[in-house]
From TrEMBL:
Translocase recorded as keyword: no
Official protein name in the record: AraC family transcriptional regulator
Pfam name, any one: Cass2
Domain HTH araC/xylS-type: 8-106
The keyword Transcription regulation appears for this protein: yes
PROSITE patterns in alphabetical order: HTH_ARAC_FAMILY_1, HTH_ARAC_FAMILY_2
PANTHER family the UniProt entry points to: RIGHT ORIGIN-BINDING PROTEIN
Keywords: DNA-binding, Transcription, Transcription regulation
Molecular function in Gene Ontology: DNA-binding transcription factor activity; sequence-specific DNA binding
Transmembrane stretches, start-end: none
Organism (species): Gottfriedia endophytica
Length: 287
């Protein structure tokens, strides 16, 4: 099964089980992917977490039922996974801007989140510059934090970590000790497959080092792999986010390669992060 078909199968599974208490593990299994990689890919493509997508879709269907049936609000609350009518009303108002009672009376406008269908358009896409690199294992040193993937907590915590290391001088230390083949400071995403039901990840701010590990830093062995190395041009964070989306929506679906499920690397230089001419890289293990 191809990459696009696998992702669509997982989306179809979510849609077919919207009224059930489904888990992220069961969803990722439909795509034959780990929880980490499925959630990461899904968020890159949709700008939503899986929990947000499920909530938006359930509240869309609930609004349709309120407008077209005489089912009691309390019954709809339980049907769409809310323990109390109050919790349902709060979530409903947050999405639609009106209460369930107002929606029943056709007061205000409702916000509809439609069912996702994966489509790949290869006409007129921007060219991507990349190279294939094979490397033996190598060592990076830096600091590590564990983040939860639940409700996109990693997306909130990782930018805060970068603010911290830039403010306390850690990034300066990493640039100074960098003497490996990859020049710059790395953001390293590590899938903790098999632990915590796959709901956790490690994120490193690190750099490649040959030799001893500085005493104030931790070390991580990056396993031998074949890598697709993509050029990223432009100011942060928009250029990096755009590149990730282009890789998953255009490059992977049209290439012969698959993700090898090892650590992913983002490579940052010490140049002005807001410069339109900034050069960065994305390293993805492939097979």
């Amino acid at each position: 099964m191809g990459w696009v078909e696998s992702l669509q199968k997982a989306i179809d599974y979510m849609e077919e089980n919207l009224l059930e208490d489904i888990t992220i593990e069961s969803i990722a299994k439909q795509a034959n992917a780990s929880v980490f990689h499925f959630q990461r890919t899904f968020t890159i493509l949709t700008d939503l977490s899986i929990a947000e997508y499920l909530r938006n879709r359930r509240l869309t269907l609930a609004a349709e039922e309120l407008s077209t049936t005489d089912h009691k609000i309390i019954d709809l609350a339980y049907k769409y996974g809310y323990e109390t009518p109050e919790a349902f009303s709060k979530a409903f108002r947050k999405q639609h801007g009106v209460t369930p009672s107002e929606a029943r009376k056709n007061i205000g406008k409702l916000k509809s989140y439609n069912r996702l269908m994966i489509q790949v358009n290869l006409k007129g896409v921007e060219p991507m510059k990349y190279k294939i690199v094979e490397r033996e294992s190598f060592k990076v040193v830096g600091i590590k934090r564990e983040f939860s993937l639940v409700n996109g907590e990693n997306q909130i915590g990782i930018p805060k970590l970068w603010d911290e290391v830039n403010a306390n001088g850690t990034s300066d230390v990493l640039f100074k000790v960098n003497n490996g083949q990859i020049k710059g400071v790395l953001g390293v995403c590590v899938d903790k497959r098999g632990t915590h039901s796959g709901q956790m990840m490690d994120y490193w701010v690190a750099t490649e080092v040959e030799g001893d590990t500085p005493k104030e830093l931790l070390s991580l062995e990056i396993p031998a792999a074949k890598w697709a190395v993509f050029e990223v041009h432009g100011a942060m964070p928009d250029a990096m986010q755009k590149a990730w989306k282009q890789i998953f929506t255009e490059w992977f679906p049209s290439s012969k390669y698959e993700h090898a499920h090892g650590p992913e690397l983002e490579v940052y230089s010490d140049e002005d992060p807001f410069s339109p001419d900034l050069y960065s890289e994305i390293w993805i293990p492939i097979k």
